[in-house]
Amino acid sequence: MKKLFISTAVFFALASCSSTDTIEENQPVDLNSILPTKFTETNNSGQPYSMTFKYDGNRILEAAEAGASNKTTYTYNGDLIVRVDDYENNKLVYTREFTYTNGKVTAEKVINKHTGTLTYTKNYQYLSDNHVQYNDYAGGTYNPATGVYSNITFSQNDVYISNSGNKISATSVANGVATTYTYHYDGDYSPFRNVRGYSKIVLFDSMDGEYGNNNLLHQTATSTGASGGTTSITGTHTFNSNGFPIKSVMASSGSSVLSPTSHTYVYEYNK
Hints:
Blueprint: E1 16-17, E2 20-21, E3 36-42, E4 48-56, E5 59-65, E6 71-77, E7 80-88, E8 91-101, E9 104-112, E10 118-128, E11 131-143, E12 148-161, E13 167-174, E14 177-185, H1 198-202, E15 216-223, E16 229-239, E17 245-253, E18 261-269
């Protein structure tokens, strides 16, 4: 997933009462104002990757890679994120534009300029508040002479969501292969829970389930076909005194093709 501590504030109130000063300390932290300020990922290779975040209140403005000219910027309309731009070496390479109906994402236009220009739209259909179907890019043929993509195929995805805003189960069919996913989460705060509008644009960003309003404990994926099988992801989380994860270890296993992998995520917060 590139797929992004200041100690608890102490307030001093000075009041004069019969020549006696009163000091009020250790005010409770407003949990709704806690935001991640830095994220560091370390994978099997041991090479860390860090991002720092800028905000306007609870609205995220930018996620910037430490020590590089790579960043992601966010544009809002009210409390909804309507555009996300990814820059690599200060060059715009990836754009996502979001359309909403009644506060829910109904369309996502993607412009990918990593190689040529690939443009497509993901459309979301809400069968209920807890059941969503959408398409996603699955593959295509690129012609380097023209910079044009052809034979574009899409996956068809069917997702069930809990009232807490986490995936429960999903099915994805792409190029004749069906994969079924199941998810289990804890009941604790996730790192980006308080970032305004963020969960709306990342919930369907990946089938791994690592983004949700709570923290992923376990995911299984079972695929059909000759190369089918079952893989799993297990999450282990360490929390700070405010109940937010400061370290998450996501370990995957079960694939006969790929070696087991482990990703460690470390978070720092504004409080």
